[in-house]
Amino acid sequence: MKITSARLIVCSPDRNFVTLRIDTDEGIYGLGDGTLNGRELAVAAYLQDHVLDCLIGRDPRNTEDIWQYLYRGAYWRRGPVTMSAIAAVDVALWDIKAKALNTPLYNLLGGKSREGVLVYTHANGATVEQAVESVHQHMEEGYLAVRAQCSVPGLAGGYGVPKGSKPYEPAERGLPSEGLWSSERYLNTVPELFEKIRLSAGADVHLLHDVHHRLTPIEAARLGKSLEPYHLFWMEDPCPAELQEGFELIRRHTVTPIATGEVFNSVWDAHDLIRNQWIDYIRTTVVHGGGITALRKLADFSALYHVRTGFHGATDLSPVTMAAALHLGLAIHNLGIQEHMPHSALTDEVFPHHYTFQAGYMHPGEAPGLGVEIDEALAAQYPYQRAYLPIARKLDGTLTDW
Ligand code: EZ4
Ligand code: CO
Question: What is the CATH number of the domain that holds 187?
Fold first, then answer.
């Protein structure tokens, strides 16, 4: 089998996506996702200008060799743009390989380790009360695990809080907006939020929270300690993770489980975190972490240290990545949970797919390959529109993590 063409589809059905389609001489094609929120065109140019021509004539079944060719062979390694580009190719090749064998992708990754993938969704509110209400709504929809976020009193908006009645979408069209942040007010609000949720929702529901890199290690340690009575499933991205040993300090002070890694793009970003058992869940995504080939290795390395997966699953990862994550999640032994932030109806229309949600679990479906298509005619009606993630500043104007 030989690759005969590789081309990009950049579209914006409610939000931007970079999709790669690889075709073969046997008429089988595969799809890959290369979406990097707010930097989409950098990945598209990387693929178009430096990668796609190199693929022509190669056997698409050689996923390991092609991965090494793009990673090791480029000399300049890693980084989110490079690794998202490699992921787009890698996932499209796995899609082709599974379609050629006429089997769903999970069968090539170890087969089924479970009947469904436990997922969590997002409860958001401008106030504590609205967030509590939102948790209950999602429990009624069947979710067994819910992440809760609310605004800090006196500071409207902020990470995870929707504007008006539209579903939350982190990127906004146009240039970046700026908002305000106060760690002090935040630290005083979150324990109250989880006290109210746990009291009203009962002991069984899994509760999660995303700190979104906004605290220092000692502040995160305080938050983790203050949340212990509400036994969270995890506290996510407690602080920026460039300094891996910063997590040792958090770990020393709290038994609230820790998840991190949605911005990582290599096992090396998490090497110390994992081998020192400073985290409980690794969140690196198929799209930003170099594809199925790399994520399978990361999951296996994590398993040696009792670290389970909790792959990122926000709307900026296309349905192609969602499907890839579900196939991987069904197959690996050390699945923890999968994030599920449902796409808009229009996005789902552009990317028809076979994965399903039922009673708290998702399943990738039984179609050969990934089980995701793209309606190119519909996609063409929604061209790329510039959109960026917001910027955050402290009350004195200092730029801080959003
Ligand atoms: O802000 O994917 O856990 N989910 C998250 C996401 C990220 C976005 C950034 O593009 O933190 O909502
Ligand atoms: Co997050």
Answer: 3.20.20.120
Q: Is the CB of residue 169 less than 8 Å from the CB of residue 315? A: yes
CA of 2 to the centre of ligand 2 (A): 38
- Tens-place pLDDT, residues 148-175: 999 998 888 889 888 877 888 999 999 9
So which residues are the catalytic ones?
159, 212
- The mean pLDDT value for 29-51 works out to 98
Answer whether 281's CB lies under 8 Å from 310's CB.
yes
Q: Is the pLDDT of residue 398 over 80?
A: yes
User: Sorting pLDDT into bands at 50, 70 and 90, what band is 340?
Assistant: very high
In the chain, the percentage of residues whose pLDDT exceeds 70 is 100
Cα of 69 vs its chain's centroid, Å: 25
Cα 171–Cα 174–Cα 180 angle in degrees, nearest 5: 60
Ligand 1 and 389: CB distance under 6 A? yes
Nearest to 383 by CA among 17, 7, 6: 17
Ligand 1 pocket test target in 234, 260, 262, 287 with most atoms within 8 Å of CB: 262
CA distance 344 to 162: 14
Query: Distance, CA 158 to ligand 2 centroid (Å)?
Result: 13
392, part of any domain: no
Residues 83, 135 within the same domain: no
Are residues 98 and 112 located together in one domain of the fold?
no
Whether the predicted pLDDT of 127 surpasses 80? yes
Instruction: Give, as one character, the DSSP assignment of residue 76.
Output: S
